[in-house]
């Protein structure tokens, strides 16, 4: 690679790993790999999705060496306590004509509910799971979506399951190449993360020299935001003042400069960065690789982590990799005489969802092809090595094969984490309301967490839009608190695929459905609400997500309640001045929340218990060790009394007010965050 620009971080070791990956010198705008399509796959390393199962992979998940180490340092598994170590173990079952098989058990927090889909390989169903270090594991096989449940016929060690059947028992396993539970490597705990999504093209223009609109309508064209602009805001202290310690950046890969027609009839540029063309070069509208490295360095100097969006599902049809290797991509053919565009000739879910094209110009990678998978995982790994980023936001994970995620996690565990001594956070996007679908990917062999879409939609509906009751929200949260096990989920109230949330918070919401994409008002330049109430409701939404476990997300501009309908109106250029009093009040409240969250461990790592809920109020407790915080919310447009508090005197961290007793009086659209006096 070019230079490390004086980095003090462990990424100076990237040259060693790059050598192991076959990297060589390159221009500053290219990645370090000189093998355009990655290293050849291991013989026989293939996966056939048509051989039953739910898309499970036959690829192993254990850690390993990065290759020949030419330095004097040795690498190996990351260090962590024995109780946090995990060992890869392959489970197998001889096929008896089954349609699909799922491994279920206590190998992971969600193992009994979600399990792992097994793949059929030469007459035997197989899957590799990470099992706890030296700890017996109970398991069995779920056959044909639950038509029957059977213990392992090849394992005589069984115990009664309490339902008239038996569970198999795997004796405690140890291994030389272990992995560690997410968040338990290094000094940074990702439960402490506050994420800010920098939508790069619309954030800050630091270098007008790389501007370059392509001639479509301005809302859908490049508008000049770049990495130099993000770095400037880092150095000005914008994120530090807001209390953000993690930046999520748009996909950095080079995109096409060809326009594409959306399903609304308008033509768009690739300003969103999800139409990759040259996968080993940076997006020229954002800047050079050196500028991206400078951004990461500037963030790290201020103890801010950086995760990059990585789009592995597809490329643009002008991409060289598509021209040179069409066999690495699914054909746009549903097998029934029609196309396989998602939502048209093919469905968005299931097997079709893993091979459908998002549009007719975005060919979909076929990661059952081992060469394609190796190329893509190599490419993603090289971006980590060349930039020094701390994590990935992985796009559209339900649309790819499990094997890509498993291989990526194994690669990170083997090559990245031993170098950095820090956990590499991988959070996925599965835009879905089904919690089982989302939870399926939250396990040590795949993802640390996902964006909690079901929680966001319940929060938006009940708290921000005032549909249903706060009791219903409490019931959902009670069921959701432990749904994803040890996963570090990201909680949010707004993102780039839904309309700006301030319009759901208006006195009369502009839409009546929290799941709306807002495309019916995507080009209308919706004005900012003129009264204070919508911003106070947003403040309540932020209060909730900043006082429960997870990694809360701020979508750029939501700290000021920016307006906007669906895409592209929800992606206006960042507002840097001229704030209304409602906007400024929301921004000040959010800064209070980040400060309180940083000071109160119970809010980041504690367990939540509902204390009371009714039509308009919700009170819950967050407890951790001997610490306790009580949160009270009132969504109503008038004063309400909220009960259920433990007796005693309390201080509201938002206002400084001292209250006592088992209830508090909350003015309209306000909250309290209470600690014992």
TrEMBL record:
Gly residues bias locations: 52-65
Organism: Plesiocystis pacifica SIR-1
Residue span, Glycosyl hydrolase family 13 catalytic domain: 197-597
Signal peptide span: 1-25
Protein name: Glycosyl hydrolase, family 13
Cofactor requirement: Ca(2+)
Ranges in coiled-coil conformation: none
Pfam family, one: Alpha-amylase
InterPro entries: GH, GH13_cat_dom, Glyco_hydro_b, Ig-like_fold, Ig_E-set
BP GO annotations: carbohydrate metabolic process
């Amino acid at each position: 690679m070019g230079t490390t620009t004086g980095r003090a971080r462990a990424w100076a070791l990237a040259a060693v790993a790059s050598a192991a990956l076959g990297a060589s010198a390159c221009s500053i705008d290219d990645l370090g790999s000189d093998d355009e399509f990655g290293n050849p796959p291991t013989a026989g390393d293939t996966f056939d999705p048509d051989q039953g199962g739910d898309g499970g992979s036959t690829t192993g998940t254990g850690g390993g060496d990065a290759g020949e180490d030419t330095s004097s340092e040795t690498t190996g598994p990351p260090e962590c306590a024995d109780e946090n170590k995990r060992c890869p173990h392959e489970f197998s079952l001889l096929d008896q004509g089954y349609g699909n098989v799922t491994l279920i058990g206590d190998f992971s927090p969600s193992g009994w509910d979600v399990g792992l889909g097994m793949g059929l390989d030469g007459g035997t169903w197989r899957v590799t799971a990470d099992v706890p270090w030296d700890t017996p594991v109970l398991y069995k096989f779920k056959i044909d979506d639950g038509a029957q449940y059977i213990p392992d016929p090849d394992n005589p060690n069984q115990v009664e399951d309490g339902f008239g059947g038996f569970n198999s028992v795997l004796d405690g396993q140890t291994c030389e190449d272990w992995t560690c539970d997410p968040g338990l490597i290094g000094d940074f705990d990702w439960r402490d993360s506050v994420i800010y999504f920098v939508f790069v093209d619309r954030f800050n223009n630091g270098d007008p020299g790389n501007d370059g609109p392509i001639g479509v309508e301005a809302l859908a064209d490049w508008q000049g935001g770049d990495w130099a602009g993000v770095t400037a805001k880092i150095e000005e202290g914008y994120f530090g003042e807001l209390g953000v310690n993690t930046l999520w950046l748009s996909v950095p890969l080079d995109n096409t400069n060809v326009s594409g027609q959306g399903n609304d009839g308008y033509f768009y540029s690739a300003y969103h960065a999800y139409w990759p063309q040259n996968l080993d070069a940076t997006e020229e509208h954002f800047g050079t690789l050196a500028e991206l490295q400078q951004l990461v360095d500037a963030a790290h100097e201020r103890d801010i982590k950086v995760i990059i969006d990585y789009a592995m599902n597809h490329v643009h049809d002008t991409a060289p990799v598509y021209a040179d290797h069409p066999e690495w991509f699914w054909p746009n053919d549903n097998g029934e005489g029609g196309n396989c565009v998602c939502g048209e000739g093919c469905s968005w879910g299931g097997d079709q969802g893993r091979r459908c094209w998002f549009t007719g110009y975005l060919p979909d990678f076929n990661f059952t092809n081992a060469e394609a998978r190796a190329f893509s995982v190599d490419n993603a790994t090289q971006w980590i090595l060349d930039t020094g980023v701390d994590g990935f936001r992985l796009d559209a994970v339900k649309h790819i094969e499990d094997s890509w995620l498993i291989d990526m996690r194994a690669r990170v565990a083997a090559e990245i984490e031993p170098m950095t001594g820090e956990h590499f956070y991988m959070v996925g996007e599965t835009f879905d309301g089904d919690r089982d679908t989302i939870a399926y990917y939250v396990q040590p062999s795949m993802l640390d967490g996902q964006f909690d879409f079901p929680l966001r939609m319940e929060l938006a509906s009940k708290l921000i839009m005032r549909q249903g009751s706060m009791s219903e929200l409490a019931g959902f949260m009670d069921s959701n608190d432990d749904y994803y096990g040890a996963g570090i989920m990201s909680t949010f109230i707004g993102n780039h695929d839904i309309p700006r949330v301030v319009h759901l918070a208006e006195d009369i919401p502009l839409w009546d459905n929290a799941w709306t994409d807002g495309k019916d008002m995507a080009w209308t330049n919706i004005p900012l609400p003129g009264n204070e109430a919508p911003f106070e409701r947003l403040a309540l939404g932020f209060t909730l997500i900043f006082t429960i476990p997870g990694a809360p997300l701020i979508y750029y501009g939501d700290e000021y309640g920016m307006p906007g309908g669906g895409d592209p109106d929800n992606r206006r250029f960042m507002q840097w001045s001229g704030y209304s009093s409602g906007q400024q009040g929301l921004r000040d409240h959010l800064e209070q929340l980040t400060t309180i969250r940083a000071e109160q461990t119970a809010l980041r790592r504690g367990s939540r218990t509902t204390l009371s809920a009714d039509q308009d109020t919700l009170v819950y407790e967050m407890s951790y060790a001997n610490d306790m915080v009580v949160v009270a919310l009132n969504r109503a447009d008038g004063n309400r009394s909220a009960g259920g508090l433990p007796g005693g005197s309390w201080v509201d961290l938002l206002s400084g007010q001292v209250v006592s007793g088992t209830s508090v009086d909350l003015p309209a659209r306000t909250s309290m965050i209470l600690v014992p006096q």
